[in-house]
User: Fold this.
Amino acid sequence: MLRQAANNGYQAGRADRQDRWGSNYQGSYGYQDANYAYDGYYIDRDNYNYYFREGFQRGYQDRYSRKYQYGRHTNGSYSMLDVICRRFWGFNRSTDVPARRAQLACSVLTILEGC
Assistant:
């Protein structure tokens, strides 16, 4: 869910910037609807909408502003996972050997990001 929301926001931010429109993630259909890929199995709709919008907003802001403070864009995909791991647990997944607890937390986030 988070990955899809952030990617949708990223694409909307890119489109608005390319079209020279003002920054307005709340005006995007994806943000307003916030039900993309909702299946109702694991989380209720209100919580899904909330987290989808949070991810969408961050992806949009990163791409529109080009500051990439919430995530990074690599190989055609936008990801917030490395930034989350660095900010909350103080390590870089790709270079540091994390403590077991931090490694477990990022494993959970990796699963969630893929949903």
Q: What stands out?
A: The chain has a mean pLDDT of 77. Residues 2-114 form one domain. The two ends are 5 Å apart (CA to CA). The longest helix spans residues 45-65.
